[in-house]
């Protein structure tokens, strides 16, 4: 794209939004280039970007363009309705209504939540209302200056690659985002093309969440502190815990109300210990036994529990996933012999060991819960396997498939039940985790990221991944390389030169399989301007695993920083 030409097109538009026009005047040349040098793209989490003017920004015009493409996508599938939800971010409600206005102008009915709701409830609502697609306006746990447009298909799952490509093609056919037709909300209501949804869907969803419970033989008086981190989870998580009989649940009041600035945290991300600061302070005063934190759109959840020294420890995503998987498979005797656990390629191998113990298969997918949702749908149709649990290292878990995306409301309830189960047996979650390590081995994981913004950053990330792809590694961190998995060429290349096909969608990802059940994987983020590198090691001793991980991270990091 000629960014100056695109900039002039916006400047010459007489009816452009006044606030956006004012913002344009405040940007320097570098900022203007970044805002107009390309169009926002759909990645692993849909369309997501910084708020502001420009074709590479989230604003009413880029949202309208995406909504127009979605409406065409729905009509091409002979559909006639969508569901729209939104979170607590800046302009989320505006973008939700704009999406409905565009859809209605195209003859597609929109069911819109009249106030903010979590992402997993949107997934549920698409299925519950029999709609043909869904949208949630969210940027998950990104900084306050971001927002996004995440699209779901009629199954309630995020668009997998083939469907996303169709959607992208239709969006790209919209020649001028400044001239997309809209209709007034009141007119659409009169025509029956806009309907507001609320408590009926909430109640149906909450009832389904209660269905995941596995045992009442637990200590329901366990002290729990919950924080929604200024997001959407407050009513549904607290209601779910109350309905399940948990009598000792308190809220971090300072973080209970929606706040687009997420003013009490550096980042509203339960993957980061700082997000638990206020919950930990309250926990120390009250002696809480479990802390629960959800991200703004309530698809990710973090758990923290007291250690031996009394300080709280935040479980990482792999640890929580391993504990949940073990609890679910140990308690759910109704699961059939063809049960399957689904995880991503950058999620700990510990889950595979646990699943095997209980006679469950493990299936790996590319990073992104849309691939897990896609497999659930396939297995439901074929009867080949029965979904038992799905998770990814980035704090996303799905207990039951009435939702087709990661669900922090389900995971919060299951985390509380699991902790209460172990408490009654005399264990904390940390002690239960230690027992799993002793049984299966000390699996320890890590992740490093390199933030590189703008066009130059995108190009450098590609060069780094290519440099690893093109280098024939023999050892990494003192461990032999057994195989290289190139998901762009769909090849698994073994050390002896033999090859086999990887039956997953193509993606710019490279993974190195090392001896001793160890590995590392490089992947450009689909939602942020970052290169991510994931690591996993295993030994029979915690100290040895920590040393292996440190050596591996140091060597790989040195290699990627050496790339110009």
UniProtKB/TrEMBL annotation:
It catalyses: alpha-D-glucose 1-phosphate = alpha-D-glucose 6-phosphate. Keywords: Carbohydrate metabolism, Glucose metabolism, Isomerase, Magnesium, Metal-binding, Phosphoprotein. Its EC number is 5.4.2.2. It is an enzyme of class 5 (isomerase). It holds the Pfam family PGM_PMM_III. CDD domains: PGM2. Pathway: Lipid metabolism; Glycolipid metabolism; diglucosyl-diacylglycerol biosynthesis. It comes from the Bacteria. Its cofactor is Mg(2+). Residues 41-175, 205-304, 316-434 form the Alpha-D-phosphohexomutase alpha/beta/alpha domain. Residues 494-544 form the Alpha-D-phosphohexomutase C-terminal domain. Belongs to the phosphohexose mutase family. This is Phosphoglucomutase. It comes from Salimicrobium album. The lineage of its organism: Bacteria, Bacillati, Bacillota, Bacilli, Bacillales.
């Amino acid at each position: 794209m000629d960014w100056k030409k695109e900039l002039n097109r916006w400047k010459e538009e007489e009816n452009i939004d006044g606030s956006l026009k004012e913002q344009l005047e405040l940007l320097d040349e570098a900022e203007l280039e970044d805002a107009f040098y390309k169009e926002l793209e759909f990645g692993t989490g849909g369309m997501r970007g910084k708020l502001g003017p420009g074709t590479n920004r989230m604003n009413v015009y880029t949202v309208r363009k995406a909504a127009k493409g979605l409406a065409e996508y729905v009509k091409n599938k002979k559909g006639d309705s969508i569901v729209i939800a939104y979170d607590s971010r800046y302009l989320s409600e505006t973008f939700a209504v704009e999406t409905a206005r565009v859809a209605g102008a195209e003859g597609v009915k929109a069911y819109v939540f009249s106030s903010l709701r979590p992402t997993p409830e949107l997934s549920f609502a698409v299925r519950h209302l029999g709609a043909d697609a869904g949208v949630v306006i969210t940027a998950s746990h990104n900084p306050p200056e971001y927002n996004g447009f995440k699209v779901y298909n009629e199954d309630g799952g995020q668009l997998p690659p083939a469907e996303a490509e169709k959607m992208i093609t239709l969006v790209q056919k919209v020649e001028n985002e400044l001239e997309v037709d809209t209709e007034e909300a009141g007119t659409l209501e009169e025509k029956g093309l806009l309907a507001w949804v609320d408590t009926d869907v909430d109640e149906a969803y909450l009832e389904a969440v209660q269905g995941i419970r596995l045992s009442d033989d637990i200590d329901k008086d366990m002290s729990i502190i919950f924080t929604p981190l200024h997001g959407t989870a407050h009513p549904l998580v607290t209601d779910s815990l109350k309905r399940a009989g948990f009598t000792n649940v308190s809220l971090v009041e300072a973080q209970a109300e929606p706040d687009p600035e997420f003013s009490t945290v550096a980042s509203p991300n339960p993957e980061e210990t700082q997000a638990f600061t206020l919950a930990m302070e309250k926990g120390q005063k009250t002696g809480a036994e479990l802390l629960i934190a959800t991200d703004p759109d309530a698809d990710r959840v973090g758990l923290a529990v007291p250690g031996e020294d009394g300080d709280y420890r935040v479980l990482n995503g792999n640890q929580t996933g391993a504990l949940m998987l073990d609890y679910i498979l140990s308690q759910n005797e109704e699961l059939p012999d063809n049960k399957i656990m689904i995880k991503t390629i950058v999620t700990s191998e510990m889950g595979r060991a646990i699943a095997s113990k209980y006679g469950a298969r493990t299936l790996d997918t590319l990073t992104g819960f849309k691939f897990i949702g896609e497999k659930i749908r396939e297995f439901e149709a074929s009867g080949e396997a029965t979904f038992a649990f799905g998770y990814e290292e980035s704090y996303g878990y799905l207990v039951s498939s009435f939702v087709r995306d990661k669900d922090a409301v389900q995971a919060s309830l299951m985390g509380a039940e699991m902790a209460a189960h172990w408490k009654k047996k005399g264990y904390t979650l940390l002690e239960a985790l230690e027992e799993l390590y002793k049984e299966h081995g000390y699996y320890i994981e890590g992740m490093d990221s390199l933030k590189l913004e703008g066009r130059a950053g995108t190009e450098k990330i590609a060069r780094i991944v290519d440099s690893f792809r093109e280098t024939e590694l023999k050892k990494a961190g003192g461990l032999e390389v057994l195989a290289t998995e190139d998901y762009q060429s769909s090849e698994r290349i073994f050390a002896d030169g033999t090859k086999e096909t990887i039956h997953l969608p193509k993606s710019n990802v490279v993974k190195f399989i090392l001896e001793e059940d160890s590995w590392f994987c490089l992947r450009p983020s689909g939602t942020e301007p970052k290169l991510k590198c994931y690591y996993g090691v295993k030994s029979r001793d915690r100290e040895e695993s920590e040393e292996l991980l440190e050596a591996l991270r140091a060597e790989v990091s040195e290699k990627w920083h050496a790339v110009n």
